[in-house]
Amino acid sequence: MEYSKKNFSEWYNEIVELSELTDKRYPIKGMNVWMPYGYDLMKNIDEIIRRRFKEDDFGEVMFPALISKTMFEVEFEHIKGFEKELFWITKGGRESLEDDLAMRPTSEAAMYPMFRLWIRDHSDLPLRVFQIVQVWRYETKHTRPFMRSRDIHFIECHTAHETYDDAEKQLEIYRNQWNYFTHILCIPYLEVERPEWDKFPGAVYTRAFDTIMPSGRTLQIGTIHQYGQNFAKNYEVKFAREDGESDFVYQTTFGMSERLVAAVISIHGDDIGLIIPPYIAPIQVIIVPIPGKEPGLHEYAQSILTKITEFGIRVKMDDRDSYTPGYKYNYWEMKGVPIRVEIGDREITERTITVKKRTAKGRSKVSIDHIEEMKVFLDDVAQTLRERSLKILEDNLNGLKIQQQESQIVTKILCYRKECADAMETETGLTMMGHIINKGKNGKCEVCGNDGRTSLFSRPY
């Protein structure tokens, strides 16, 4: 590659195209083309998420992309929070529409009028649905593929419950799901309660999952929201309790997006290119045959491919005649394939394969009678990625700035008053992201001395 990861922005912009994840040449700013390799990566992530949601009794839905202006005219802070980001459709053909239509920026305004029809009494609760869709937001800042787009691949869950406590239990389920997802993606995170002035519009409170990028800046890669009855009261989502009395439901949401791909690219990649966590990789094992004197190379390599496939591993053979083995090694390393299998004269004679992990320098010999060891190699790659990425996060938490980072995070004990946050933002030159829940501690505010908790200050993407 031309760029070093020490120059993170240049490295990132180069690798997303060089590795054929996306094509940025689509002639609308902030809207890019998912290439097959990138879309396979996103779909693998989607399927892990989809499977877990269904195991936890969520139903998958698909709502229309358009929301009417009338649906957005509910006098509610949620709508005001998105009004500057909406894409509007005002004509059908050459005729003006009777009611202008907005492309969904998220789906509360689309879903909750339907929730009002679906929920009648307590037997209809809890209601748990999710969808994996595109959302559109008129992002006016600097756009960047997967990180800050106008056409966003989005995963959103919406639930409705009888009581606030039931909704709180749902948020705990979200946390367990998030731990599962990030374990597979090998991404460490901070759970940060956003301050009152920066919570999701309409929420009682918002918890964000932030990760630390190689640049020293933070990236929000997931959020969970406690809505209480705020949305239900505005959209008239009521149910009949067992005693016959009517009440508003309590609601929650959980959101993720293609930023998961941005985090995978950024945190795990190196100067060579991508390193994709094994269980989301489009290709988990690449086989590179090395022509030599021994006959039957293709047949032997094909037999290895068949054996690996039988273990449920996504494997491909690169048998292109026009490229040297060395070129293929570099190509697939840049694409981030976790495991490379090399097969030449020696392997044919010994009835073995040579295995190279993307995260290690050495090679290993494996007998064809022990091909199942490939799963162990994949697990080793994943564990190495978890350990590396966790070290980066903890080094930053401990105030160790990585060489040539453009920024770094700062942690301070802070109370919940905006005045104290403003004072600390002035001192640090960073944005107060909120109080850290999973790695923070309680203490006295470093500005006013009142009770507080570890707070995160950073430059967010």
Question: What do you see in this structure?
Answer:
The chain has 461 residues and is an alpha+beta fold. It has 3 domains: 8-268, 2-Layer Sandwich (BirA Bifunctional Protein, domain 2), CATH 3.30.930.10; 279-383, Anticodon-binding domain (Rossmann fold), CATH 3.40.50.800; 410-458, C-terminal domain of ProRS (Translation Initiation Factor IF3), CATH 3.30.110. It contains 13 helices and 23 strands. The strands form 5 sheets. Strands 3, 7, 8, 9, 10, 11, 14, 20, 21, 22 and 23 form an 11-stranded mixed β-sheet that branches. Strands 16-15-17-18-19 form a 5-stranded mixed β-sheet, with helices on both faces. Strands 4-6-5 form a 3-stranded antiparallel β-sheet. Strand 22 (442-444) and strand 23 form a beta hairpin. The longest helix is centred in the C-terminal third of the chain and has 24 residues, at 374-397. The chain is globular and about 80 Å long. The two termini are 24 Å apart. The mean pLDDT is 94.
Spell out the key features of this protein.
Translation Initiation Factor IF3; 33% helix; 461 residues; Rossmann fold; 5-stranded mixed β-sheet; 13 helices; BirA Bifunctional Protein, domain 2
